[in-house]
Specification:
By secondary structure, the protein is of the alpha/beta class. The protein has one domain: Rossmann fold. Helices cover about 40% and strands about 20% of the residues. It contains 5 helices and 7 strands. Strands 2-5-1-6-7 form a 5-stranded parallel beta sheet, with helices on both faces. Helix 1 packs across helix 5.
């Protein structure tokens, strides 16, 4: 299952909650699953894309139980056929921006260019993600409630 959404939507928090309950959970922003590429058309001048071969291998190698992956990149749609569900985690703009400002484990979005990128993505990218999602989860709620929803969804899909 892919968890996707804007910065501040709670993807990392959901993954942590899922992992604490014993589920396989991988943040595709790290460990070589994503790379930075130049993107002069973006406010920050770069964007992440997935290393498709590596992500595909991760998904294909998983054999037991649910696998929860999280990330939001331009080329993610190329792997939608590998996921039982594509879940958009979404929250109001003010919640997203407040979470990004408050987080201490990720500097992305703290400077003017990063904030402009997030504002752009809320307006332009989230509607695209919504159209491609199989499920939408309100992530403005407590993380445990979001994780409960994801676990129930995974059980229904099993």
């Amino acid at each position: 299952m892919l968890l996707t959404g804007m910065s501040g939507a709670g993807k990392t928090a959901a993954l942590r909650g899922l992992a604490s309950r014993g589920h396989a959970a991988v943040d595709l922003d790290y460990d070589g699953y994503s790379v930075l590429v130049r993107a002069p058309h973006q406010p920050v001048g770069w964007e992440q894309v997935w290393e498709l071969v590596k992500v595909r291998a991760l998904v294909d190698a998983h054999r037991e139980g649910a696998l929860f992956l999280a990330g939001t990149v331009r080329n993610q749609v190329q792997l939608y056929d590998r996921f039982d569900a594509v879940v958009l985690l979404t929250a109001p703009r003010d919640v997203l921006l407040a979470r990004v400002e408050a987080r201490t484990d990720n500097p992305y979005g703290k400077d003017a260019a990063g904030r402009a990128q997030i504002e752009h993505d809320i307006d332009v990218v989230e509607p695209l993600l919504r159209r491609g999602a199989t499920h939408v989860v309100d992530s403005a709620r407590p993380t445990d409630d979001v994780v409960d929803d994801l676990v129930r969804l995974a059980a229904r899909l099993a």
